[in-house]
Every structure is written in C-alpha cells, then in structure tokens.
C-alpha cells in the first residue's frame, strides 16, 4: 500500500512546476487525472525530441497519470469537470490568476460543491500583489529573485541556474503544502485553498543570502563555485577537469593541508590560519590550490580526499552523471515501456522508504488516453460518451479507449 492510495487529484497544470508536484504525489500512490485542452494539450507536449509523434520531455514529469482531454470553455465540459471535482480530494492548477474564476472552476465555485476539497494554485507571482497578473515562467522568476545575479562567474553576464530551479521550488512547495493541508483535513475534515508562486518558492530558498543581507546589508553576487561563507569549499581545476572540495571547517582544513596537498605549513600561515583569514585571502588560496591540483587528474585528487575523509567529488557533465555506477546503484535511472515512445528511461524516485516504497507504475499518457475511462467513472453511459466525442467536448488523440489498447 502506498501513502496516498485512494486519494483523487485533478491536475490542471502544464509545463513543469505543477506537473512535477503531481508526479511526486502520483509516485506516492495518488490517482492523478490530468485535465488537458485539445488538440494541443499540455504545452510541454510541444517540446522535442519526439518519437512517433510523442515528446520525450512531456513523458518525464507526467508518469503515473491519466489524461482526460476536455473543453472547459463549454457548458458540457464544465459539467464533466464538476462531476469529477465533487469526488476529488485535491485540485491543482497553474493558470494565470483570474482564469479559473472566469471559467467558473475556481476554489470558491468548487468549494460549494465539495467543501472538503484542497485546492492549490501555482502561478508566477501569486494570486495577490502588484505583479499577480503578470505571466511568470522560470526564467522570469530567476531574474526577479536575484538568482541570475548570484549565478556564474564574478563580473560575468547574468546566468540562469542550469535547471528550472524556480519551477521545481514551486512544485516542491506545493507538494509539502498539499500534504500539510491533507493532514489537517484528516484531523478536522476541512479543506482549504493554497496559493504559492515561482517567485515566493524560490525566494524562500535564499537562506544564506538573506542572512547576509539582513545581517550586514550584503548583496549576494555571483561567486562561481565558491561558498559565500566558507573555504576551501568550491571546485578546483585538475589536470583533466575539476574537483569539488568541501573542507570548510578547521578540522577538515588541517587534514586537507597535511594529507592531501602536503602543505602542513599552511595550517599556521597567517593568511590561512582561521576561516576568516582564508576568506580574506580566498583568491590567493584558490590559485595556490589549483597550482597543486593541475598536476594530477581528477580521480587522483578524489581518491586522496576520500582517503583523508574530506567530502569531494568530480565535476561531471550530465552524461557522465547518468553513467556513474553510484547513480545506477541507487536506482535513479528507471526503464519502462511507453505505448508510443517504446522503451524509455526516466529519473527514479529519490526517497527510499522502508515501509511504503514509492512506485513508478505507468508511463505518461498520450493526450486524452483515459477520456473514456474517466467519463464512465463519472457516470456517463457509452451513448452519452459517444455524443460528447461527436460534439467535440472531449478528445482522444489516437481514438482508442483503454480497453482497446489492452486487448
């Protein structure tokens, strides 16, 4: 049994923040029905690479879900949504603020039909405030939260974090908020509304940066791979690449000097004696360490650092990461069969739970794959379903029901 077995979620999200949230909840066992417009569906379906007409990027955050393609602007489409919403535990949307109210499917409208519903909105800037009506993708949020000024090399151009960090931050924030609301509902029977945003969620992760600003007025700027408050804690160039070193406290620093770089005299060197001394001379320290590291390959230094008990590792390219034996041993790459993409690989589940291990059970659906199934569950007869298809209220990209697919 999975933690969220029996929990029903209606997912009206697209791209990454919302789909990441519902992916994790589906891994926990929730039944996630993805409500998609047609004929395009979730905008991430347009992203390549493509295999047999289906996009690989869509397949990554949409596993374990079912797709119902529905015209929410029509009265009949809205009625279908209302039927599903009455039975839903959780509804999640990431339209621009105001859109769900205009459609008549906002929290206030749904709460009248389902008082215990948990309804979560994820947007660029949130439902209130002077920027609430602005569109907000990850790159916009990275700019406004200051991330692009904190990332990259000093005095360089603004740089985006290598992944969609604000999208994932918002998705993760929605996950724990929804779970907290669900625990509250178990105790009280009350549902509630949750409002989070890419900007709020990303800003909440600026722990050290906010401490420096509130405590001393320091504005966080780009530091390359350096830590803002500790050194040696960064990557250093070796003969064939870069090595990360985490020797930020005094004990590890002394081990580093004695057992790794053979410079015991640095322990009492006035430039490097204390952490504050080392921070004051960080440029000089980096050059001196790299003058040593450059003579040997990455693995040589990683092995020495490991032997000394100092956290360290190579700086990989992404293909090297996915080929690493530790990543594979942790089941972080999972293979599964997709009805159109064929055999695919996806990123595995990061939390290894002893009593309720989470599961990747099914691949991402094609657009409208489960439309007929969900309509039957909502009480529609086969004749009514056929009429809904004919009236273009609902849609199935490949014009097959789930039963036909599995025959």
Automatic annotation (TrEMBL):
Q: Which Pfam families match?
A: CoA_transf_3
| Stored InterPro entries | CoA-transferase_III_domain (IPR050483), CoA-Trfase_fam_III (IPR003673), CoA-Trfase_III_dom3_sf (IPR044855), CoA-Trfase_III_dom_1_sf (IPR023606)
Record key words, sorted: Transferase
Q: Domain of life, per the record?
A: Bacteria
| Keyword RNA-binding annotated | no
Q: Which GO terms describe its molecular function?
A: CoA-transferase activity
Gene3D superfamilies linked: Crotonobetainyl-coa:carnitine coa-transferase, domain 1 (3.40.50.10540), formyl-coa transferase, domain 3 (3.30.1540.10)
Q: Does the keyword Transferase apply?
A: yes
Q: What is the recorded name of this protein?
A: Formyl-CoA transferase
Q: Which organism is it from?
A: Alteribacillus iranensis
């Amino acid at each position: 049994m999975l933690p969220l077995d029996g929990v029903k979620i209606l997912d009206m999200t697209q791209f990454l923040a919302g789909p990441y949230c519902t992916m994790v909840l589906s891994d926990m066992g929730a039944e996630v029905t993805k409500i998609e417009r047609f004929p395009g569906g979730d905008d991430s379906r347009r992203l390549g690479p493509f295999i047999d007409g289906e996009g690989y990027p869509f397949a990554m955050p949409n596993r374990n879900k079912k797709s119902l393609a529905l015209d929410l602007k029509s009265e009949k489409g809205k009625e279908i949504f209302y039927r599903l919403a009455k039975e839903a535990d959780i509804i999640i949307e990431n339209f621009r603020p105001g859109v769900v109210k205009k459609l008549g499917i906002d929290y206030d409208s749904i709460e009248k039909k389902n008082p215990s519903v948990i309804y979560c909105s994820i947007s660029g800037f949130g439902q209130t405030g002077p920027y609430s009506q602005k569109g907000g993708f990850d790159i916009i949020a990275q700019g406004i939260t200051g991330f692009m000024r904190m990332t990259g090399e000093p005095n360089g151009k603004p740089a985006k974090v290598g992944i969609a960090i604000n999208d994932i931050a918002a998705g993760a924030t929605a996950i724990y908020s929804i779970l907290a609301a669900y625990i509250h509902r178990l105790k009280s029977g009350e549902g509630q509304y949750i409002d989070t945003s890419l900007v709020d969620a990303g800003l909440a992760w600026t722990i050290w940066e906010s401490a420096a600003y509130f405590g001393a007025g320091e504005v966080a700027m780009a530091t390359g791979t350096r830590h803002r408050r500790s050194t040696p804690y960064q990557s250093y160039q070796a003969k064939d690449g870069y090595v990360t070193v985490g020797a930020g406290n005094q004990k590890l620093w002394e081990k580093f000097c004695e057992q790794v770089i053979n410079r015991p005299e640095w322990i009492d060197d006035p430039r490097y004696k204390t952490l504050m001394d080392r921070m004051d001379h960080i440029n000089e320290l980096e050059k001196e360490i790299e003058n040593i590291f450059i003579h040997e390959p990455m693995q040589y230094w990683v092995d020495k650092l490991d032997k000394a008990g100092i956290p360290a590792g190579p700086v990989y390219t992404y293909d090297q990461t996915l080929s690493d034996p530790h990543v594979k041993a942790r089941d972080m790459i999972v293979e599964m069969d997709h009805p159109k993409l064929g055999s695919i690989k996806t990123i595995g589940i990061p939390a290894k739970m002893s009593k309720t291990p989470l599961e990747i059970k099914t691949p991402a659906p094609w657009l409208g794959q489960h439309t007929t199934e969900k309509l039957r569950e909502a009480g529609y007869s086969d004749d009514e379903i056929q009429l809904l298809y004919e009236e273009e209220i609902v849609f199935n990209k490949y014009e097959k029901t789930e039963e036909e697919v599995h025959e």
